[in-house]
Structures
1.
Amino acid sequence: MADDELIIGHRNSEWTGLGPILEEDIAFSSIAQDQIGHALANYALLNEHFGEPTPDIIAFSRNEKEFRSSQFVELPIGDYAFSLMRHFLFDHAESLRYSLLTESSFAPLSSLAKKIKGELKYHVLHADMWVQKLGKGTEESHARMQLALNETFPYALGMFEPPNFDRELEGQNIFIGETALQTRWLEVITPILEHANLQLPSLPIKERMYGGRQGYHTEYLQPLIDEMTEVYRLDPAATW
Amino acid sequence: MVTQQQIYDVLATVMDPEIPTLSVVDLGMITDVQMSDDGVIVRLLPTFVACPATSYIRANITDALTKFGFANSKVEMETELSWSSDRVTPQGRERLEAFGLGAPVQIDGVLNLDVIERVACTHCGSKNTDMRSMFGSTLCRSIHYCLDCKQGFERFKPL
């Protein structure tokens, strides 16, 4: 979860200064800020409860093999339709994931989920608004959004790649499991997309872009990590 | 004997770095103040999870308590409760308006597009306003436009 948030937060921040209109520039920058903040909060839980190093060390001193993020989040920002569609698909999954985690038997995570849930409401409303506007806008905007959906969807399914410990989490009532989350996600996004005249691609199962949760990534992740950690690596012990 | 009220008086001087007329008490960020022989313990509830001001606020509270003679004070982060804009006090709401930011409406746990959009113009008071963006210059602000006086304004987001 934290790796997904850190990497997509980094990608979304690439819109800062480049957004198609000022409000969207600010929106993507704010969403990126939230996502990196949520990653930090999750890394802090690993540090406090599971003996992992401090958040900065977890975030900035691993190579791509050690990242458990889905391939979906590391893809370059593409055009605005691509980033918007990824934002829509990702934030609906995040929002549902955190809603489910409010019931988690691991109390520190359920407390954090309650906090984050409200913030994600803004992300989802923002994404829904643009999916509607552009899906039902002009012929060109519709075509671009449909293309973006076709391109992102196989990767988006990679968000629900079950980790090795999926059953264990479910058994201990920590999390309901990735398959159940994916089912709920499809139930939520399908009517919104239909309402925007957009069609979910039907896919053979083998086209799901799995691998990220096991450390297998696309050619795009390591360059992102190199850029993200460039300043950190100059002097890892520096205080800010 | 130090009273809780004295501590709250000090906390009322610690302002939000992004809205300098609003104190941590106005924002509803203080959940508990305890006094013991070892010193004062203040429990601080962060607003937005990614708010970069939280660490400054925490340090500013310790500084203020030290300045007013309460040494050995400690600020603990409240992790079990969730902050909501409903925690902003009536005085906090007045101060937000005086600062030029629309105050958040009461949400009672229900955050939807209606409460996010519904705000009176901070310039002329008209309720005939339009939301321009749910993301503003800081994480806690959204951007609105008054259809009567034709001015833009920001509001403190309901959460």
2.
Amino acid sequence: MATVTFDGASRYYAGNDKPAVDQLDLEVEDGEFLVLVGPSGCGKSTTLRMLAGLEGVDEGAIRIGEREVTNLPPKDRDIAMVFQNYALYPHMTVADNIGFHLKIKKMPKAERAERIQEAAKLLDLEPYLERKPAKLSGGQRQRVAMGRAIVRRPQVFCMDEPLSNLDAKLRVQTRTQIASLQRRLGVTTIYVTHDQVEAMTMGDRVAVLKDGVLQQCDTPIGLFGKPKNLFVAGFIGSPAMNLIPAKVNGEGALIGGQTIPLTPAQRSALTGTNVVVGVRPEGWTLKSDGEGIPAMVEVVEELGSDQFLYCSTSAELASVDTEPADEAEAPHTVTVRAPGMSAFQRGEKVALVPQPGAVHLFDAESGDRLPD
Amino acid sequence: MSVIDVAPRAEARGAPRRPKPGPALQHGKVGFVLAFLAVPVVIYGLFVLSPYVQAIYISLTDWSGLTASQTFVGFDNYVRLFEDDQFWVALKNNVILMLVVPVVTLALGLFFASMINVGRRGKSGIEGVRGSKVYRVVYFFPLVLSMAVIGVLFKYVFAPTEAGGIFNGLLGLVGLDGLTQPWLGDPRFAFWCVVVVMIWAFVGFYVVLFSAAMQSIPKDIYEAALLDGSSRFTTFRHVTLPLVWDTVQVGWVYMAIQAMDGFALVHIMLGISGGPSRAGDVLGVALYRSAFNSYRFGYASAIGVVLLVLTLIISVLFMRAARRERVEL
């Protein structure tokens, strides 16, 4: 078991001035399940491959425990990896796939068989040990890939989107299985995903990356409750947080006739006169009478347990989005969560009031969170 | 002919609701099948099968190739052939060509191809050795030369020092004067020079063939092998080779049949008598010599028939030996 430390680790790709991973400082504790999450191209897979030794490190260092591994070949790092496409050896049986590392290590046959059996039992793979990967379902292949990692008893597990090739239902199931398995084995794990739900549900801590830069690394609750900047605020949580630009005047930030008061500390931290007010869908109180931000229900999304209302408001309340691609999707709309099976109708007029504790304030210039 | 059977059966299998195909359509189908099947079969029979049959018949006669008539002599030609020492020399050389050339060529091809494609752990995972793009092209060079050109060129390469032999010249340059030989003039070396040239001429093709096979192996399998602690050799032995085995198998049969021939190179490099003391003789050259030098077409045909039988046996044996379970990627 070991800690993993990234110390200013950077990676440049040939012909590209901008680093794929930029000065990454990250400390993963012993036995921790850390999830790297971010949109595609944010450098999360590169980070993982740097740790595994499949990708070079141009600047900085990576340590496993006290051992500096920056320039060690992959085989000397004591790391096991689960690949997105599983990377099973197609010509070997499941047992041989799982035991390949042990075979290379020249472990005696009997001991090897025992270890393979043990891993297979843990993953319900015993009936399939003699099959070839081509004869397995996606979920079974995924478990073989897990087995190949587990059987080694490595210091660190690296998982590169191991669930992205499974169907939705199996993904949810396997998510829980992997998380509980990791806790049982207590092996330090770094898990890459682009799915923020996976990140939130599985990780002890979640590191959010964007354009190769670490945005925030915190527990799921920390990320959700106190996003450090606009990007994290918009990325974590589903549906996304409503981010509403507002001007600050003497009293506070004004959104659609509602004043959000700013503390003196927030005022002094503000660089300009513009803020972005963030309110999660569940942070609104719905009122039917006049007080509050007037809005009209455009779409009702019924999930049974919850209901999401997509409400349009007046133009001055344009919702900003950190992702330009999403702009078309949500201009002038505010997402509101209502209890499931509520009687809201399309076209209904409502008034929205942000709950006092549910307001996040961000500096519109820098995108950083203002102190609470 | 089975062509006739096809139509009624196809009709019987058709959906019952569909109207029965009329006689015109029926006729058209037979004509269609005939056009595509009969023409190639006739051409194949005329130009491929019938020469075999004719050769077998000629081998049972004493035809000189110049006369209009021939006498049937039964298996006399074969008896004489098996008593001829030169036949056994040629056959031995053919066996050497068939065993040594494919093994060395395929081994070198696999080695170069794996170096070019997956030889190195680069900055971004697995890649070919430095300069692999250049090698990829260079290995292909011999393939653009015809066998005749290669034979003529290497005849000069292995020529005696006085005649400007490049190989002897090179040996002299690196101070190995003692090793210079009249390579093609010595019964001990003449044939092995042909072997070397044949390998040189074919390796490039297998590098290209195996490269293509190796490129279809997903890179992450190699990365998994790296993380599993597999060395280059272990990876080659346990990952690359099993995954390109199908291609090796095809290459194996093809190369063995190519090497079985060897006529062009031996004829050009060593001449019609098969080199000094006829030591480098192969069956193809012996056949040619009997037919066009001694005008014993019957005898030559007997050699040809033996060559045919051997090639058939070898193809079947190799196919059997190299058969393995297919790997699905």
3.
Amino acid sequence: MNLFAEAFAWMLAPEQWTGNYALPKLLAEHLALTAISVLIAAVIAVPIGWLIGHTGKGREIAVAVSGAARAIPAFGLMILLVLLLGVLRIPEAAVITFVLLAIPSLLAGAYTGLEAIDRRIIDAAKAMGMTSWQVFWKVEVRLGLPLLVGGIRSALLQVIATVTIAAYVNLGGLGWPIIQGIPLQKFDQVLAGAILVAALALVVDLLLAAAQHAAVPAGLRTGSAPKRRERARSQASATATATA
Amino acid sequence: MFTARGKRSVFAVGLVAAAALALTACASSNPLDEPSDSGESSGSGDTIVIGSQAYYSNEIIAEIYAQALEAADVKVDRQFSIGQRDAYWPDVESGDIDIFPEYTGSLLEFISDDEIDVTSPDDVFAALQDTLPEGLTALDYAEASDQDSYTVLKSFAEENGLTTIGDLSKVTSQVTIGAAPEFEQRPYSPAAAKEVYGVDLTFSATGPTTLESLLAGQIQVADIYTADPAFETEEIVALEDPENLIISSNVVPIVSSDIADDVSDVLNAISAKLTGEELVALNVLSTVDQQSSADIAKKWLEDNDLV
């Protein structure tokens, strides 16, 4: 039988929906680890990214650190931390690993979002009398939101893919079928686990793509809106000249 | 939103992906299957190739085989620390590696397609001999084993009066057993222990941290392999298995059938002297005293009058 068919058969078998390693439970564990890690990473990385983007200083360091941090071998780091912190601190060791993995994308999303804003808009905001904080929150953060959501999307995908290794240190997650299936040589199980992780990543990616699209302010979206405004403006000027 | 060019490239990508998926229908169920070789014998008739796993204990045993054969004027080529079975077994099957120190039970689990219902050392050995392909022979197995166990802290055993696995039902609080992830599905899993001994155990996939978790008190029972040096260095004891729940896994030399007669005397003599305690002691010399496998093997062979 085709290995893909066997993998789907495994997924739908009733044993996989009850007990300590039921697929819904593994999914919940996977999402929980991902969410906690990305949240902590965001609390650390996003303010720093905003600071770098707002002041324009420290960009080179941020780029260098982001680049280097992406190269961390997550599995090796997690095992190292488990050895250092001890068996009673396994969840902390794993979360630290995933946080370090998520930081580069979030940092990049935060500061590129702010850097991409046209300086004239900031000048215009200041000219309108906004204070520094108002400029920051109402203009910079709002306009930088799409790229920040892009950074969140990238971080989430990386972490979802990597949380599969958490099963190796007894934290569950969708990596469990893979990690148990390989020594048992049950490749339908291994493939099923891989398909589930990939499917989760795709679903999250689509949701965040939609969020990223929605984060662009209505007036800046490409498409029919400017054309309508162009037409309305030219009609208005036509009627104005006609009536004048 | 999509331009015409965008739509076409999305369609093309989708088509390629669908084609790739369809092609995998040609794949076999086991992606790690090697295309089957007709058993070739190894190159030069003189040199015998001995392999070992990437496991220090297995390497010590392989080094013992190697030195004993060299003392018998056989030329030996050492290929140690190859990796796990997925990595080295195809070479053993094809004859590229002539001698490999293996473990009866776990090798049987690896090569057998059927359910295994034997557990005692003799039965497992006989089943292994039946299941091995034509070109391979299993020589005598040693008393030394490296098999799963239900191990507890000595203090825990004394407090609760435990000698056998069945005694675990005397413990009133929750008993958790920690082991590698695949343990949950093995024929000697906690579920099987419930059937055979009537004990209720919760499973925790502690994997690489199993020993530490036992010593830290996170789990009450641990699957510690019987050759682990911790049996000498820590205060732990393996519970007895009178119903033979756990599959035996004794040290056994797997050799290419065409050289089996030439090496059997030497290797069987080694297996006769290699007891469980001896193997644990060898492992302690490696992990605690940090001696090299060559030194450990040399001393052991001399102490046992095998060279």
4.
Amino acid sequence: MSARADALHDHWEVVIGLETHTQLSTASKIFSGASTAFGAPPNAQASAVDIALPGVLPVLNRGAVVRAIRFGVAVGGTIHPRSVFARKNYFYPDLPKGYQISQYEIPVVQGGSITFAFGDAQRTVQLTRAHLEEDAGKSLHEDFSGMTGIDLNRAGTPLLEIVTEPDMRSAAEAVAYAKTLHTLVRWIDICDGNMQEGSFRCDANVSVRPRGQAALGTRCEIKNLNSFRFLEKAIEFEVRRQVELIEDGGRVVQETRLYDSDNDETRPMRSKEDAQDYRYFPDPDLPPLAIDDAWIAEVRAAMPELPQAMQARIVAHYALGVQDAAALTSSRDSARYFEAAMAALPVADATGAKLVANWMHGELAAALHRAGADIADSPVPAHALAQLVARIRDDTLSGKMAKEVFDALYGGDGGVDAIIDARGLRQISDSGAIATIVDGVLAANPAIVAEYRAGKEKAFNALVGKAMAASRGKANPAEVNALLRKKLGGQPA
Amino acid sequence: MPAPMNPVLDTLAGLSASLAAKRVSSVEVTTALLARIERAQPALNAFVTVDREGALAQARAADVLRAQGGAGALTGVPIAHKDVLMTDGLRTTCGSRMLAQFTAPYDAFVVAGLKRAGSVLVGKTNMDEFAMGSSNETSFFGPVRNPWNTAFVPGGSSGGSAAAVAARLVPAATGTDTGGSIRQPAALTGVCGLKPTYGVCSRYGLVAFASSLDTPGPFARTAQDCALMLNAMAGHDPRDATSLARPREDYTRELAQPLAGLRIGLPREYFGAGIDADVAAAIDGALAEYRKLGATTVDIELPASRLSVPVYYVIAPAEASSNLSRFDGVRYGHRAADYDSLLELYAKSRAEGFGAEVKRRILIGTYVLSHGYYDAYYLKAQQVRRLIADDFQRAFARCDVIMGATTPSAAFEFGAKSSDPVQMYLNDIFTIAGNLTGAPAISIPCGFTRGGLPIGLQIQANHFREARLINVAHQYQQVTDWHARAPEGSQ
């Protein structure tokens, strides 16, 4: 498979563009006052506007616009001073008005880009646009035999549809882009990113062309990919399908396809020939959306430091690697945790930063993962982790002890120093006390000492082990080492 | 002018004075008008729904309020609403089979305003289906007949409200005006009909026909009564994004202002060929009165206005085709009895629920918005709409109001134009520009044809100049009595 894939990529170039529907985290819908909370009984959150009673009118939710502006600022796009809501007309039972209010000719955000680490390189994907629109309801086919249920709770939920240029060249790159976008929209607090609940879903436009060919191949759009794994697998399947089709003398037909995760394949949904004419026109119920510079400035002033900028700062300030910095800024909660821990360290230097990063990605990440918890709800607060790191650095704790303290911290057994004292975990670094232990070990093990003197380096390690055991693990191993060498009179013969 | 002896037949202002002076109670007036409505219904068919119980309950409440001293100008005054405006708990049909059984759970903004002002709602008036028509022949509930001669149409689409006011069934009523649907029936039935500036009266609860043109407004027998109604109908509504946030106005405040120095613009395009001779003579007579009142006339040009009708018949059907998509038989409204697929559910429900004129406009609208035609039709129409608005702005730099006939001819007989939609559409040739520009206009009675049918004078003013418009109409009504004439049998 992998050899075949390599051969495929030698001859064919894959071209991918993504359209991502991000559900904006407003409390109420984009054109009505109904709640957007997930999981209510069917139609409990559908107002007169959402079910499109005669005579009701849409009124734009300012919070949705603020979130669109935040996104535009974050990606460096142009925020149009005057964007227009349009009606996309089609009939479907879960579309109560018979049209979806979207933006067509003039979107709220035009352009911008997303930069991310891909392997060892940095990649930048250009954005075409991001526009505001309302979600449709849901048709429930399973629960009613011979009938279709309609739940309009989701109808009118605010979405920002983010469209890229066809800039990605592999499924892996598309996933890297989507993950970066997913981090960004949560980072700037415009979307909860919950993919199971449909808050972040991707459509992938996929085409292939012979390497070296300038013109794009015919594309297919794969709809509603609601996990990164499905996104990757759907694209990989689609690429193989298109290449095999062309190599067998066929040609790709422009169409919309659905990914079937059970069978790991894409299937045609509708072709361009039966594409609907949506009869877009400006919605006369909604005046053009006016966004002036003052509004943009107000939103910009309330923006957090963005992940890219923070990564660069972490790399420059703490001399951490790009991978470490990217991992620390994988979410705003993770970044907040890191910053809080660094602020609590007595010495916030590169060594401290590396220790904090290692503990966050090691023990803490593992423990949180086991508990299915999020770093925002970590039982070990950032200042406690900082305290733990401080005790490692001042030689109070060995690495092994630190792990025991961490487990106790995670279990809620109190503060770092209290745990150390309660468990007698303080490392012995006092040279007098260690000298007494070392002298005792040397006196009690003349045979091993003799082996060492005869040139057996392994015997030295055995002596270290005896000394550590005699201290019940509390002796500072480096001190024990140094003292043993000194007492044994330097290198073995 | 001698005051009418019977307060039941009086103007809104006159009735209000009688109620205030306790010469009559709201229950008495309401009871009497309900009886008149019942008697007139077989001949005129002005109402779709009459709410006898509700009206009497409101009348009793109004009388209590009057006794307590908390009354306003409209307290206890019976009115009717065009059946396109949502009324909480009282069926709203839009003159269509589609909504023949539909009852909304809320009041339209203008309905709520008139309710708060203490008016008594006697019922819902008949109309062209979904407000599409100029003759009231498209109603699912049968045509409304003109009280002046029941062989003639009352105009449309607010024909039921116009006929009800003309026949003295109510002193005032609401209507909606998308291309002339208040002013044209007002002219054809000899009453006053005011289309306010777009955005002055919220469209919330008005079942949309063409959203960028739909304008609620009042019918009454005098300009002053229109002002009293508008006082209760206007205002900012946060539920309508096109409703304008402007300070409240008293639209009666300029009533007494003399007209000396008033500059009346006479568009070349509104006079001459195509105007019925009796109508032209009546307009000339009205202009002579205005000159006597101290006004001067100035010739103006509105060259782009000749394109009003084609522009309107692109934009209005385009918006309608989309607005009426929600009537799909899924959630409410008419649903076909049998269907084998989703497509058939849609197709049959809509084919059965909508009448011919509504279908015609949905088809036109769907066509002009279609891929490949949008630029040539919809976009071009919007561009011409701007040119028409520019014409009016240039004109209003030279005059205070623009006058002319409301319609090129008086009421026509049933069936006279129903086989030729374009002839029907041309009846709105003078009224449509006001909807395209959004500026206010009023139609007031200014004479009769030799056949005894009323003729309307249209007065247009610039945006937000309703108070001036009402003043200009009111001063004319102080020196003429066309508006006080009643159809035979209605006195």
